[in-house]
TrEMBL record:
This is ECF transporter S component. InterPro entries: ECF_trnsprt_substrate-spec (IPR024529). It comes from the Bacteria. The chain crosses the membrane at residues 6-27, 39-63, 106-128, 140-165. Keywords: Membrane, Transmembrane, Transmembrane helix. GO terms for molecular function: transmembrane transporter activity.
């Protein structure tokens, strides 16, 4: 895939990081529940690679915060770090996981990124952003229980979107057409 195409994918996904939360935030607390910014960041990493995914994870929340006020300034640093990890790790795993089956490759990469991002997010909360007042219970609640609808949404939406992009010829095929 050309560098220009990677940049375009990252830019479109960063724009989706602005638009999707606007749609979800008409519902109270929908951002924390549905995690709408995570979807384009992970799609960017899976489709365009780790650098594009990380850049999307950085630009998406920063631009959204500047343009819409979401996420709010106190949440922005930790959320940005978490999203950078999601984009980076999804891209790294997707580049190295080769099972011979596209959906399996994508799910392994997606779930691995979801786990790494939540671990890094929790560690940063505990060590930097909420040092001294962050517990394992707060981490489990914030990153797993509250966001459970978003986790399910990511598992249901991200892989089919990436497969559809590949089948439509918008991104290069990972394997031959018989898989």
């Amino acid at each position: 895939m050309s560098q220009v195409k990677r940049i375009v994918i990252a830019a479109v996904c960063a724009a989706l990081c602005i638009v999707l939360p606007m749609a979800f935030h008409s519902i109270p607390n929908a951002g924390a529940l549905w995690l709408p910014m995570h979807i384009p960041v992970m799609v960017s990493g899976l489709v365009a690679g780790p650098v594009a995914g990380a850049v999307t994870g950085l630009l998406g929340p920063v631009l959204s915060s500047l343009l819409t006020g979401m996420p709010a300034a106190p949440i922005l640093p930790s959320m940005t770090c978490e999203l950078v990890v999601y984009g980076l790790v999804s891209g790294l795993l997707c580049a190295h996981v080769r099972t011979g089956r596209l959906p399996l490759d994508l799910y392994v990469s997606l779930v691995g990124a979801m786990i790494c991002g939540r671990i890094v997010g929790g560690l940063l909360q505990a060590l930097i952003f909420s040092a001294g007042s962050y517990s394992l219970a707060a981490w489990a609640t914030a990153y797993f229980l509250t966001g459970l609808p978003g986790i399910v949404l990511q598992l249901v939406v991200v892989v089919p979107v990436v497969v559809a992009l590949e089948r439509a010829g918008l991104v290069p095929a990972r394997y031959g057409t018989d898989r």
